C-alpha cells in the first residue's frame, strides 16, 4: 500500500508518518508535500497512491481545489484544524476527517475504515460535497486561521482569536494576546504571510507580522516612520518603515 502525505507543518507530518509506520508498517510513504505546487508536480510524475492523507490548508492554497481538478481515484483522509461541527458534518457526508492534533486512535479508526471500504469496493469520497460545504459554512476561511504549536511530545491548537502577531528572531514565534511566546515550525515570516488573511494581518517590518485586533492607532515620527499603538504589549518594536507607511494606512483604514 502506498500512502501520499500532503502536509505543510513539518512536526505534524513527522508525527503523522510515525503513527502510520506503527499502524501500517508494510505501507510505503510518499511525501510529505507542503504545497499545491509540489503535489501537482508529484502527480505528474507518479502513479496514483492507494491512499491520500491531505491537510485541507497547504502552504499555498486549499488541497481540495487541487484534488477536485486532478480527480484521483484514491480514497482521501483529510486533516484539519476546523471545529468539531465541521468534523461531524463531513462524517455525515461519508468523508474521513481528522482534527489536529491528530490522535493515534483516530488515525487507527480512519485506516480501518479505509481497509473496510477497499474490501467492499466502496465508492470514491465526494470532494464536490466537501467543496460546497466549505463554501457555504459561515466563518470558513480560505486562509489559515488556527495553528498547531508543538513543544516536545505535546501539541496545542492556537485559535485565530488568540493570535496577536508573529515575530522573527532566530526562529519564528507566535505571540498570543495574553503575551505567551510560542515557537512555530515556520522557517520565515514570508511563509506565515503567505497563508494568513491579508485583511487581518500586516507585515509591519522584517521582524513583525501583526494582527489587526492589536492596533488602536499610530503616529508619524520626524523621519516618516509610523509608530504603532497597541492594546497590549508585543515582544517586538511596533513600527512601520517610511516606505511601507502609505500601504499600512490604506490597510488600517480599510
From TrEMBL:
PROSITE patterns: RESPONSE_REGULATORY. Keywords: DNA-binding, Phosphoprotein. Residues 2-115 form the Response regulatory domain. GO terms for molecular function: phosphorelay response regulator activity; transcription cis-regulatory region binding. Signal peptide: none annotated. GO terms for cellular component: cytosol; protein-DNA complex. One of its GO terms (biological process) is regulation of DNA-templated transcription. SMART domains: LytTR, REC. The modification 4-aspartylphosphate is found at residue 55. SUPFAM superfamilies: CheY-like. PANTHER family: REGULATOR OF RPOS, RESPONSE REGULATOR RECEIVER. This is LytTR family DNA-binding domain-containing protein. It comes from Dawidia soli.
Amino acid at each position: 500500500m502506498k500512502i501520499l502525505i500532503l502536509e505543510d507543518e513539518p512536526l505534524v507530518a513527522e508525527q503523522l508518518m510515525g503513527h502510520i509506520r506503527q499502524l501500517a508498517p508494510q505501507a510505503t510513504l510518499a511525501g510529505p508535500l507542503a504545497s499545491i505546487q509540489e503535489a501537482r508536480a508529484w502527480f505528474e510524475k507518479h502513479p496514483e497512491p492507494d491512499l491520500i492523507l491531505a491537510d485541507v490548508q497547504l502552504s499555498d492554497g486549499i488541497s481540495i481545489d487541487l484534488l477536485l481538478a486532478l480527480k484521483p481515484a484514491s480514497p482521501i483522509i483529510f486533516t484539519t484544524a476546523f471545529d468539531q461541527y465541521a468534523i461531524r458534518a463531513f462524517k455525515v457526508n461519508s468523508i474521513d476527517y481528522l482534527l489536529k492534533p491528530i490522535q493515534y486512535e483516530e488515525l487507527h479508526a480512519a485506516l480501518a475504515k479505509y481497509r473496510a471500504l477497499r474490501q467492499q469496493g466502496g465508492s470514491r469520497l465526494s470532494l464536490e460535497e466537501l467543496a460546497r460545504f466549505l463554501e457555504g459554512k459561515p466563518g470558513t476561511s480560505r486562509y489559515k486561521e488556527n495553528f498547531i504549536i508543538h513543544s516536545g511530545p505535546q501539541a496545542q491548537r492556537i485559535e485565530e482569536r488568540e493570535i496577536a502577531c508573529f515575530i522573527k528572531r532566530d526562529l519564528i514565534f507566535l505571540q498570543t494576546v495574553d503575551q505567551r511566546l510560542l515557537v512555530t515550525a515556520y522557517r520565515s515570516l514570508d511563509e506565515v504571510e503567505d497563508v494568513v488573511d491579508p485583511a487581518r494581518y500586516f507585515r509591519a517590518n522584517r521582524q513583525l507580522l501583526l494582527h489587526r485586533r492589536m492596533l488602536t492607532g499610530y503616529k508619524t515620527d520626524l523621519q516618516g516612520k509610523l509608530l504603532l499603538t497597541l492594546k497590549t504589549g508585543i515582544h517586538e518594536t511596533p513600527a512601520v518603515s517610511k516606505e511601507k507607511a502609505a500601504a499600512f494606512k490604506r490597510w488600517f483604514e480599510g
